[in-house]
Amino acid sequence: MTTSEIALFVYDNLMKGEDQHEWLASARSLGEATTTPQYALVDLGTSGALVQGGFVAVTGELYALSPAALAALDVHRGHPILHRRTAIRLADGREAEAYLLSMEQAAGCRRVREGDWRKRRGAPGATRSRDNSPLVSWAKRRFDPSR
Asked: Which of 4, 92, 134, 146 is the 20 to 30 A CA-CA neighbour of 69?
């Protein structure tokens, strides 16, 4: 990595194959990476968010970006109002920048327990589990007129 490049850890729709990966078109891939197990990954619907203070090692990708590319991405991600770009520690000891959401902002958001955006429930290609709990069964009977 050159001295003018910044390492950025991405964990959601910015990853390769995801719908907003084009924002990293000018970036250089540094490969897959995982955080230390002190974060939570939450599902915001169209994107995810990394939250400090969890117990999950989050899987993602590492990219080297120019300061100009990072500035454009900062605007896109709403830094510093929505997401705050912060230095994080990776499992291999390296440090990288990542976009984090505060614990308060993430309140009520569904956690991605596996720490892997691509394995979240409802993701294309994700393994879907059937929930046959009594509450789900009741809701299906109550709200599905064909049952």
From this structure: 92
Q: Distance (Å, rounded) from C-alpha 36 to C-alpha 38?
A: 6
42 within 8 A of 49, measured Cβ to Cβ: yes
What region does 146 belong to: left with phi over 0, alpha with psi -120 to 50, or beta? alpha
Residues 6+ apart with CB under 8 A from 77: 83, 85, 99
Digit-coded pLDDT (tens) for 46-72: 899 999 999 999 999 999 999 999 999
Cα separation, 101 vs 84, in Å, equals 6
User: pTM surpassing 0.85?
Assistant: no
How many Cβ atoms are within 10 Å of 70's Cβ, its own excluded? 18
Q: Are 8 and 27 in contact (CB under 8 A)?
A: yes
What is the C-alpha to C-alpha distance for residues 135 and 119, in angstroms, rounded to an integer?
A: 24
Interatomic CA distance for residues 20 and 47, integer angstroms? 9
